[in-house]
Each structure stands twice: as structure tokens, then as C-alpha cells.
Design goal:
Layout: H1 2-57
Amino acid sequence: MEALTALGLFLFVTIFSILITRWLGAWMLRINEVIVLLRRIDSKLTDESKNSFIKSDV
């Protein structure tokens, strides 16, 4: 009986840790996508500001 309890606890902890890892991985991918989008927006804004600065300078 103790062996079954230990096996059940082991399986529960294993499955739970796999689910937590997958959930954290999904959130890390979402956060990474947001960071990439913010970098693209930032680079577009800095490019536009550089262009407008160069045009106003001439």
C-alpha cells in the first residue's frame, strides 16, 4: 500500500511539474513576442524621428 501511495505521489508531482513547465514556457513565449513587437515599434519610431530630424536640418 505504501508503494502505491509513493508511486501515486511521484506521478502526481511529475505530471504537475510538466504542466507548470509548459505553462511557464507558453508565458515566456508570449512575453518574448511582446518584446519583439515593442522593439520593432521602437526602431520604426527612431527611424522616423531620425528622418524628420535630417529633413528639418536641410
